[in-house]
Amino acid sequence: MSDILERFDRDGYAVFRHVIDPELVREAAGHVDWLQHRHPDLRPEQLGHTLLRDDPFWLRLVSDDRLLDIAQTFIGPDIALFASHYISKPPYSGQAVLWHQDAAFWPLDPMRVVTLWLAVDHSTPENGCVRLIPGSHRGAIQAMRSNTAVDNVLGEEIAAEVDESAAIDMVLAPGDVEVHHPNIVHGSSANTSPRRRCGLTIRYIPTSTRITADEQPYPSAFHLRGEPGVNAYQPWPHFDQARHYRFTGAEGRAEAGRG
């Protein structure tokens, strides 16, 4: 793992192939469809963290040991969830994500956090895969400016000029995971292709990182592994077939909660 950490320290990102099995990826894809049907008022790029506090499948997915083992490589054994967000770009109309750094937005102290980006669909330049600037995490957090002239997810972008010629495409297959630093400059183009592009962002923190938002516990703060540390956490939801997405092993979580 030392070579992975060295490359991550140099480049600000890493890619892990074939992390999640096809069966669980199919369940995640079905979960996205279920969420869109349940929340027709939300764009599919905006299936965000406030939805997951009462969603047993979402918690089952982000607490998968294969993902936690990757997170542990970067932040250690005491792990909590800070936030998670499906960005599902529909064919022909999926919104761009303009150049930004995650650390510019997050209420965390210190800014010790790692993002795992789980590919639910094939992610390619044609359908708007993640693009990032290797090594840009070593620079400062840059000022942001509003941009609503372009249809986009954040409504903001880095105010300074970004050298797009330095960007590389994160081409991923379903089940692959891309990991990136909170300071790295990244974004993605609009999806003008006939294929959906969906990925799940998962923001893991060591439990020594404090969530400083006014709302406590934070809507998506869940203790996942090791010592609980400094934050208050949401209780794990119990599966209820009348109101939750059904998934493999769901019934076993009806009474056990985290299980």
From TrEMBL:
Residue ranges that the Swiss-Prot or TrEMBL entry lists as coiled coil: none
Single Gene Ontology MF annotation: dioxygenase activity
Keywords, comma-separated and alphabetical: Dioxygenase, Oxidoreductase
Superkingdom of this protein's organism: Bacteria
InterPro entries (alphabetical): Phytyl_CoA_dOase-like
Database matches in SUPFAM superfamilies: Clavaminate synthase-like
Signal peptide: none
Protein name: Phytanoyl-CoA dioxygenase family protein
Species this protein is from: Nonomuraea insulae
